[in-house]
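This part of the workshop introduces the protein records we will be handling. The question running through the whole workshop is how a given chain folds. To make this concrete, we reproduce a full record directly below:
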Amino acid sequence: MFGTKLAVAPMMDWTDRHCRFFHRQLTRHALLYTEMVVADAVVHGDRDRLLGFDQTEHPVALQLGGSDPAKLALAATVGARFSYDEINLNVGCPSDRVQSGTFGACLMKVPDLVAECVAAMKGAVSIPVTVKCRIGVDEQDVEEALDRLADGVFAAGADALWVHARKAWLQGLSPKENRDIPPLDYPRVYRLKQRLQSRFIGINGGVQTLGEAEAHLSAGVDGVMLGRAAYHNPGLLAEADTRLYGEEARLPDWEAVVHAMAEHAARHIENGGRLVHVTRHMTGLFHGLPGARRWRQVLSTEAARPGAGPEVLRRAFAEVRLDEPAAAA
């Protein structure tokens, strides 16, 4: 499991089951994450709606939010029953929602509780349990804060630690500002890996290209997590298996990708869904290729109309001119 070199980050309102199915058409190997699901919702809510996924999404990890070890252990057990490949604990999200619930990035302030949560989850499931965190929050010293959290979760049995290389400012910055304003500190994550050489340490935050991912791997970390770059320019994932996993180089079969997504959309519509639930994740697919603007326009306008069907995807794809040199779209 932790031969993984590339992951697509958990992103609220973005990495739902349709997004993950789409990303899996582009890369066979990258680890895909769910949106954060609150442990209370798993315990008390509609589990099929919250946790259901297509088996072609593997490898796929469930990210949980919470701070109650018993509830997290139960939620992890449910996730394992749904056949997720990994359970991840969110210790990095700075949103108002998690602050009001005292979890996410707030947990950086209580590393002993994080370790208790990890120990409870590890005791409940046999699949890997991992943590995603920040380098610190607010006025914390990032050297002390990250070391203490890392040491605690690994002592509790964590199988990997993904580190978003920014502080989170819970006071004074909005969740959106927390994605950009605190400066990135990649060397801090490298130092953690140098100290914990036998542990899986992955890096996250601001990575825009596979070239940057390769540079981080060369610097010594074990994995790289792409966030908004993978979402807004998903076509870059089509090169990941060749560049990071050693597969034979080949041109992407864009027609096969669109066909698979049209069939997926048809199934979703038959079950009462709407086309836009699927296509909203796909508008950036042909970034930089001739016809990309028309692709976006067709999907953005026609897919949202009542009764829109998968033929919209095929009509949009007809606007993409794959036989012409790439140019600004």
